[in-house]
Each structure stands twice: as structure tokens, then as C-alpha cells.
């Protein structure tokens, strides 16, 4: 719970109330300048919600166009959070991200078209850059993004 102003009658006032202190609720509550009440039913870092576990992957390859600007903002905010945490507490580890699928996959093509990734043609045999790591069927493509990463979820709400 963040500090808030009193209304003079001893009642505390908040600009925003966030229900759920998982990764999404904690990120929403972290916005600067707002008086926020963060409510959580369970203990901090509990295992009952979708945010339990050590890590989360991030990517920018989504078919919906409205995600691309949000993901660029997300990355900037995670970079800022990492800068605040310092190098001793690694919250975000940036890593390239690669989605691979059939060349005519609508979601993959849309992710490239929306600017969330760049297209890499996957060619037969060892002629493509990932061939030494894994093989994919002929006629597939890859969508690569430098905006991938791994978030240490248990450190993120700190």
C-alpha cells in the first residue's frame, strides 16, 4: 500500500485501487504520481495466481497492431525498472525472440507487418541462421525480434 493523503477526517484517499498484487497488478500500482491502494488476498509472492514461478518471457510478436506500441513502452519501462534496481538485482534479461511457423501463418505475418518483428526466410537445410540449433519444415518462416526477454517474476514486484 502506498502512502496517501488524508481528507482531514482521518479517512485515507487514493487515486487508484488495484485488486491483485501479481505481476500485472504490481506494475499497474507502480505508476508514479498516483496515490495507490494495492489489495492482495494472499501473501506476497504466493503460488495461487498466474504470476507465480521464477520467470516470464516477453516478446513483441503479436498479430494485433495495437500491441506493438504498448510493447515498445513496456520494454522502455522494464529498462527503467532495471536501471533503478541496478545490476546486482537482475529483473529483466533482454534476449532476442524468434517465432517460427508456416510461411502463410496469418498471426506470424501480421506480427511482421505490424512492426513487432522482422521476417527471416527459413530456407531448406543449413542455409538459414538457426539451422545449427534446430530444424524446421521446408516452407516455414521465422519472425525475429530484439525486444524479447526474460523477467524474473519474483524480483519484479519488489
Automatic annotation (TrEMBL):
MF annotations from Gene Ontology: flavin adenine dinucleotide binding; sarcosine oxidase activity
Domain FAD dependent oxidoreductase: 15-108
InterPro entries: FAD-dep_OxRdtase (IPR006076), FAD/NAD-bd_sf (IPR036188), MTOX (IPR045170)
Keywords assigned by UniProt, alphabetized: FAD, Flavoprotein, Oxidoreductase
Pfam families in the record: DAO (PF01266)
Family membership noted in the UniProt record: Belongs to the MSOX/MTOX family.
Protein name, UniProt field: FAD dependent oxidoreductase domain-containing protein
Organism: Miscanthus lutarioriparius
Amino acid at each position: 500500500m502506498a502512502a496517501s493523503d488524508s481528507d482531514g477526517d482521518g479517512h485515507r484517499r487514493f487515486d487508484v485501487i488495484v485488486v491483485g498484487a501479481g505481476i500485472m497488478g504490481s506494475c499497474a500500482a507502480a505508476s508514479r504520481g498516483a496515490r495507490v491502494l494495492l489489495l492482495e488476498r494472499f501473501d506476497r509472492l504466493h503460488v495461487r495466481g498466474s504470476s507465480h514461478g521464477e520467470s516470464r518471457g516477453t516478446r513483441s510478436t503479436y498479430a494485433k497492431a495495437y500491441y506493438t506500441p504498448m510493447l515498445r513502452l513496456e520494454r522502455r519501462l522494464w529498462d527503467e525498472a532495471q536501471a533503478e534496481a541496478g545490476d546486482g538485482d537482475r529483473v529483466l534479461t533482454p534476449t532476442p525472440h524468434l517465432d517460427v511457423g508456416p510461411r502463410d501463418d496469418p498471426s506470424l505475418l501480421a506480427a511482421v507487418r505490424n512492426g513487432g518483428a522482422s521476417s527471416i526466410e527459413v530456407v531448406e537445410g543449413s542455409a538459414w541462421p538457426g539451422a545449427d540449433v534446430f530444424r524446421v519444415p521446408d516452407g516455414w518462416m521465422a519472425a525475429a525480434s530484439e525486444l524479447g526477454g526474460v523477467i524474473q517474476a519474483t524480483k519484479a514486484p519488489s
